[in-house]
Amino acid sequence: MKIVKVYGPGCKRCDAAETMIRESAKSLGVEVEIEKVSDPRAIAIAGVMSTPGISIDDKLVHAGGLPDPGKLEGWLAT
């Protein structure tokens, strides 16, 4: 199981990123646990300068805007 964190204030883009992650994981057959992180201090500590940010298994893989679907699937597959 992959631990995925979505960093952001809870905006529409953050919700859309979470939906993308769930859909990509489902299509790949990968189990994910998604945690939303909205605390500004925790977001800064994670190194996210632009939201939404995404980390997979404690590795920051994306920050700012929605991720490219192909890249997202690649991150989840590895």
From TrEMBL:
This is Glutaredoxin. Residues 4-76 form the Thioredoxin-like fold domain. Coiled coil: none annotated. InterPro entries: Thioredoxin-like_fold (IPR012336), Thioredoxin-like_sf (IPR036249), THIRX-like_proc (IPR005243). The active site is at 11 (nucleophile), 14 (nucleophile). It comes from Falsihalocynthiibacter arcticus. The keyword Disulfide bond applies. Disulfide bonds join 11-14. Keywords: Disulfide bond, Redox-active center.
